[in-house]
Amino acid sequence: MPTEPSPKYLTMRERLRRRILELPIGAPISSERDLAQEYGVSRMTARRAVIDLTREGLLDRHVGRGTFVAQPRIELRLSLSSFTDDMRAKGKKPGAIVLEFGREQANDKSFFPVGTPLVTMTRVRTGDGVPLAIEETHLDSSLVPGYSVDDAEQSLYETLGRRYGLRLDSGEQRIVAVECPKDIANSLHIRPGAPVIRMDRKTLIRERPAEHTISWYRADAYEFTAKLLPSS
Description:
Blueprint: H1 7-22, E1 28-29, H2 32-39, H3 43-55, E2 59-62, E3 66-69, E4 74-77, H4 83-89, E5 94-105, E6 117-127, E7 130-140, H5 149-152, H6 156-164, E8 170-179, H7 182-188, E9 195-205, E10 208-218, E11 222-225
Parallel strand pairs: 4-11
Antiparallel strand pairs: 1-3, 2-3, 5-6, 6-7, 7-10, 8-9, 9-10
């Protein structure tokens, strides 16, 4: 049977948690040895508390550098919400930097019928100016006549609704954890091979393929939530 946490460990962890919440992002945390002396616990107990708080996303541990207060993670709802909505829900200013913008026709491997005219764009999505995700989007251009690179700097879903009177009806999303490719890592300001969350989203409007977006999210900045219902 698992061992119950000791009162001394729980007290130390909660005191350290309160301290972390009062410190700025990126502030260094004392070494495990110093924490053990400060809180009057064993080094093993101090290490356990640091590991637990790291798992909760409050701390970042870097071998050879130390432990630091982590950037708070952004809750990402598994729904047809937009990046812009998710940022605003967390009190952050959403942004988009357009890396590529063009047009092409769908081929036989596409989500869209062969020959469908498409708008294609690659964007860095930011929260308060910090790169958090890369989005590679294909959009049925017949649904959005006149859509331009200037529009790509704004929220796609808001533009669909406000300018074109369109609303996404449904979609399918596939999520997988992968190692970050070098080109994506450079745009996200993380090291190549760092863990990222790859999301493949396909959406419909009036039962017609409308959008296909592959997104790469920084794993250190996000946590996912989903509403669960009993199976029928």
